[in-house]
Amino acid sequence: MNGAHAVARTLLKSGVEVCFANPGTSELHFVAALDDEPSLRAVSCLFEGVATGAADGYGRMTGRPAATLLHLGPGLSNGLANLHNARRAATPVVNLVGDHATFHKKYDAPLESDVDALARTVSGWVRRCGDPAAAGIDVAEAVAAATGAPGQVATLLLPADVSWSEGARPAPPLAARPPAAVSAQTIGTVAAALRGGEPAALLLGGTATREPALSAAGRIAATTGARLLCETFPARLERGAGLPAVERLGYLSEGATAQLDGVRHLVLVGARAPVSFFAHPGLPGVLTPDDCRIHTLATTADDIPAALDDLADTLAADTPAVLQAAVRPTLPTGELTAETAAAVVGTLLPEGAIVVDEANTSGLWLPGATAGAPRHDWLTLTGGAIGQGLPLAAGAAIACPDRPVLCLEADGSAMYTISALWTHAREELDITTVVFANGSYAILDMESQRLGTPANGPAHRDLLDLTRPGLDFVALARGMGVPASHATTAEDFTDRLREAFAEPGPHLIEAVVPALF
Amino acid sequence: MNGAHAVARTLLKSGVEVCFANPGTSELHFVAALDDEPSLRAVSCLFEGVATGAADGYGRMTGRPAATLLHLGPGLSNGLANLHNARRAATPVVNLVGDHATFHKKYDAPLESDVDALARTVSGWVRRCGDPAAAGIDVAEAVAAATGAPGQVATLLLPADVSWSEGARPAPPLAARPPAAVSAQTIGTVAAALRGGEPAALLLGGTATREPALSAAGRIAATTGARLLCETFPARLERGAGLPAVERLGYLSEGATAQLDGVRHLVLVGARAPVSFFAHPGLPGVLTPDDCRIHTLATTADDIPAALDDLADTLAADTPAVLQAAVRPTLPTGELTAETAAAVVGTLLPEGAIVVDEANTSGLWLPGATAGAPRHDWLTLTGGAIGQGLPLAAGAAIACPDRPVLCLEADGSAMYTISALWTHAREELDITTVVFANGSYAILDMESQRLGTPANGPAHRDLLDLTRPGLDFVALARGMGVPASHATTAEDFTDRLREAFAEPGPHLIEAVVPALF
Questions:
Q1: Which of A401, A381, A364, A377 is nearest to A516 (CA)?
Q2: Which of B91, B344, B453, B462 has the fewest CB neighbours in a 10 Å radius?
Q3: What is the secondary structure of B19-42 as a DSSP string?
Q4: What is the pairing mode between strands B265-269 and B153-159?
Q5: Is A517's pLDDT higher than 90?
């Protein structure tokens, strides 16, 4: 058996079932191995950032890694931005990167580059497979490394000759590092802080934004009076009617600072201490008040649900969590704006939807408008690397074929990885993409106001503009096989969104809205 | 004056006139500085790979660097693949990457990553600007580093607070490292080898593929009987009627080995010793025969035109170079294929055209069909990182506004950076893009035949296929404001290409051709 076959077989044995692929010559033996492993589903992507973003979406929804298949340093380069988001989301990903044959690297052929250095920037684990005899074990270790707590990107560099050489064999699965138990002392310290009666809040991240941790956190909050906050950009937030209501920390540091004003104890549960997204002159980088004590109940490497259960037990937290009521907005009429579009989404969001949110400024009203919708998951831009939404939606849809996916995209961000639409069409994924077409990088106008940079200069106006020429997302989607339509009024948008939700498979709606800034 | 203004002003003083930009928040002070420097043309790109590829195209055509403007590690990541191509082309590029404020990096905010490590993978020079007082000098050094022989990517990391802080001032231009003189001893050694009467060839790369070096090389070849070869992927090859005819080394190692068969002396002139693009089992990595002596006349760091002149003088090389005759193919009729399409291109190619060639397998007949066309430049995929063509064309068109640009694209490669079409439209660039739509990653079918991997397995067939769904490049182009049409016969293609050449501004023609493999 050659190395490639051992890699493919070991991936399957280790529970990896999907490979998001953009192969080149160096990966053809692995492609041939996939021929013999039909249970390992190969999903074709036209750009590596689609493959890596899809692997992120898949991993967020299943807790298990998908594999990627990338071509040498340049292929990995194209996939890095979404691997950066995956790293921030602590998503398990087995990032498989083909490389030149071991004996060929010395020639510094045109595609040669420092692929190891590239890999290290996004991976918690990197290995260069040097020997077909070790290929199986290397893969088993990669899967374990990706899956162990917290999840991470594990990159395996697979030279072409390791793939094609005989003498390999599959390896059995390896145990992944389990989440660490949180000590009784830590639980006790946090419990004491919450019992003290001073204003407190839990800041949830990682698996704490999902059931069952969420409910335990809700009971703790209800019992102690602590507020329930979550990170600005959670990897996956379970929310909607019947779940504990969680307040997301604002993106703008001014807002987040206001949310945290008066908090004397902030308990981190799978989240990091909040800092501002960007530096701004005169605004603090640390968002907590000076007199706020920060307690870490659990990191993403810890057993978060157990820690919250233990904390709830210690606190005798039996007051029921405050649950989000089932409430929908009223269907709006008239002008289509970011606000009325959000109301339409909130009214129509189906039960069990997976919402991928890269709507940026046009998404301002979405969390509020959907808070009381039927239970759903909300996936966000964890690392700030735009171009995440369309790929993430592809991975989430493949992870959860029975759930509708709603991908909410800003027009500017959509263009970074627009070819993901082709994968939506090819795999007949049940994804409804809404592109909020406001014709500008509006978030930069907002940031410019905060920074005090001039907003009316010729370069500023020019570089933020997306209307010269306008982007026709309906044409772009159709060009890649996705049925698409425009919506220019609230009623239009309602009709188009209803149709898209009712019909399986991918759809795109270009929602023409004014820019907020 | 703040750091951003000093950076912009120093770029201009140092001769940088264009900035291919995809800014984010950290770059807004630099955008504001561009407002005040209208001579520094900002060109908006929807994806960083477009910005970096355009800077490569600009630098190849002018010999002077353009600046990029990228946003932190993820923005740089998206630009890396085309910077890899620029590195291989030895193109001068000032790669300007905004970063978090110096005091903000410690917070490890979501967009934070190891941007320095990323930069080092593609840059010959990297500096992190740490102080507004030094910003001007840092930029002057960056431009000199980019421009010095050989050209390279010089990356300047510009923290947001360095941009916004006062106390900066522009710096005067610095002298770039001049090309090194080649010693008389080296000239003498090479002259002796060429005089020896054994079969010899010159292998041209770098500036040796352009005038005036090319003509000197042609006289040397004609006088000594040495053959005139050039690299497989020259950064910029001047060719066409009236120029010395140069044989490009084949992409397939079997072909290149045959071309080099019997050569006893290979003289490298700005080229590296030829190696195979990929390793293949049983095929050699080194393409020269065992008994071939390799002589280095000049590297890309050397004064190549002077070295060739000196060598010609030493050899008394006054036999006129063999010049390419003016000859055009006959206009074909009937089926549109890669071969008939090449004949159409060869028939219609305008005088002074800049041809960007990322046609891959569909380009097989293009060099032959255009060899005797009026003088033109041919830019190729130097680093093998696909997704180069459309951005490179944008940069070449901005560099040479009076010359028509013909961008020859494979359908698969086009999709990596398809949003470059928007920049073509926005800047009203005189670029005719031909997408050879063969519906597959055909080069991988070819490579699969060479590697002996099975070509009919389900994963192989699926991952190489681009027809499910088909990509409609006419819709994609129109969606980004570029007029576009299909061509399905040779006559169609002739008409469409004539129209596109006749009319200023961008056009796209989807040339539907069968796959060769």
A1: A364
A2: B462
A3: EEE---GGGHHHHHHHHT-TTSEE
A4: unpaired
A5: no
Contacts of A457 in chain B (CB under 8 A): 31-32, 34-36
The reply to whether omega before B289 is within 30° of 0 (cis) is no
Work out the pLDDT band at A282, boundaries 50, 70, 90.
Answer: confident
Running DSSP on this structure, what letter comes out for residue B470?
B
A51 and B CB contact within 8 Å: no
What lies within 8 Å, CB to CB, of B368 at 6+ separation is B342, B346
Q: What is the pLDDT of residue B83?
A: 98
- Taking the C-alpha atoms of residue B244 and residue B260, their distance in angstroms, rounded to an integer, is 19
Query: In B300-418, where do the E strands start and end?
Result: 354-358, 376-379, 405-410
CA-based nearest distance A383→chain B, Å: 5
Which residue in A has a C-alpha nearest to residue B446's C-alpha? Answer: A25
CA angle A195, A197, A203 (to 5 degrees): 75
Contact partners, residue A77, CB within 8 Å, separation at least 6:
A48, A113, A118, B77, B80, B81, B84, B121, B385
Mean residue pLDDT across chain A: 97
List, for residues A109-165, the tens digit of each pLDDT value.
999 999 999 999 999 999 999 999 999 999 999 999 999 999 999 999 999 999 999
Whole-angstrom distance, CA of residue B113 vs CA of residue B119: 11
> Chain B contact for A418, CB < 8 A?
yes
Element (H, E) at A307: helix A304-314
Interface of B with A in 167-196 (CB under 8 A): none
Neighbours of A458 (CB within 10 A): 12
pLDDT digits (tens, 9 = 90+) for B16-68: 999 999 999 999 999 999 999 999 999 999 999 999 999 999 999 999 999 99
Other CB atoms closer than 10 Å to residue B351's CB: what's the count?
12
Structure tokens at A336: 């289509």
Inter-chain residue contact B121 with A279, CB threshold 8 Å? no
CA angle B305, B308, B312 (to 5 degrees): 135
Helix (H) or strand (E) holding A399: helix A389-399
Å from A278 to nearest chain B CA?
7
B284 neighbors B253 (Cβ within 8 angstroms): yes
**B409: confidence class by pLDDT, cuts 50, 70, 90:** very high
Nearest-CA distance A427 → chain B (Å) = 9
Show residues of chain B in contact with A445, CB under 8 Å: none
pTM value > 0.90: yes
User: Which structure tokens are listed for B22?
Assistant: 């995809």
What pLDDT does residue B517 have? 84
Which residues in chain B touch residue A383, judged by CB atoms under 8 angstroms apart? Answer: 74, 110-111
Distance, CA of A274 to CA of A268 (rounded, Å): 9
Do B262 and B290 touch, CB atoms closer than 8 A?
no
Please count the other Cβ atoms lying within 10 Å of the Cβ belonging to residue B504.
11
CB neighbourhood size of A297 (10 A) = 29
The answer to whether the Cβ–Cβ distance between B453 and A31 falls below 8 Å is: yes
With a threshold of 0.95, tell me whether the complex ipTM lies above it.
yes
**Facing residue for B382 by CB, picked from A110, A120, A459:** A110
